[in-house]
Amino acid sequence: MKTQDARKMFDSEMSGTKRPGVFGTKLPAGFTSAYLVQQLAPGQDPKRVVLSSAEPWPLRQNSFVAMVCLAASPEEAARSMQYDSGSCSSLTGGDSDKKDVWFGVFEVTGGGPPKLIARTDTPVTTPTNWSDTDIDLPVDLDARDAKDDALSMPASWTRFDLAPYQIKSGEYAFGVRAGWSEGYAGGGANFEALYLFRIEGKSLRVVFAQPMTFDKMIAGDWHKDGTRSHDVSDASNSLLILPSETDGFHDIQLRQQAGKWRRTFKWSADTRSYE
């Protein structure tokens, strides 16, 4: 594979090795799944939980980022825990298998309980924007419409990405990686997107949602010794914070690893996100 991020994603998929920030690790002291549901998804049945996670956020003092993933019903949650424990994934893509995911930021000071600072107002419904990208599209999107919001929603939410995404002076966003997987006869593909969340008052808002990486392996001809050729393709992007600003927010740019593709995003005061 040509790009480092695609190689990491492929190796993790093949070996099962957990990447930094992966959801589902042991909750820090003071956090429980029931508490996270109460704080992040008030009024929801805690029996719907299939996954919860919290991680220290080093770029914000005494802070943690957290998430809860809920199945459509307690029965679906039990089914998910039986067949796909430890993941926030829609196995079938149907409405009954749909997962709702909430995110939040907490502060912990003086040995007291975690205090909620901000949360997503609803389950995340912002689709990944596939309209202008160098990343190959999943088959369902490629065959239909890359602007189809339902198809553009990730099939899985996988890990926190706490790189220093300083979107304006004195303010950082935090990242979440999400993705899709598909299987072929003798091969398969993985796709990953980056979501950036910004604290806005008591709310968390998605301000960026773009595809970042794919790897694809397609089976080829059989050989006399019983082995088989495979065609492998991949691409990955890096996100750079630029010194230029729009409405007080840094412009950001995706740059293709080992390639020439570039795309710059600027802050939109109308949508309060990057476009």
TrEMBL record:
Domain of life (superkingdom): Bacteria
Organism for this UniProt entry: Paraburkholderia sediminicola
Name of the protein: Uncharacterized protein
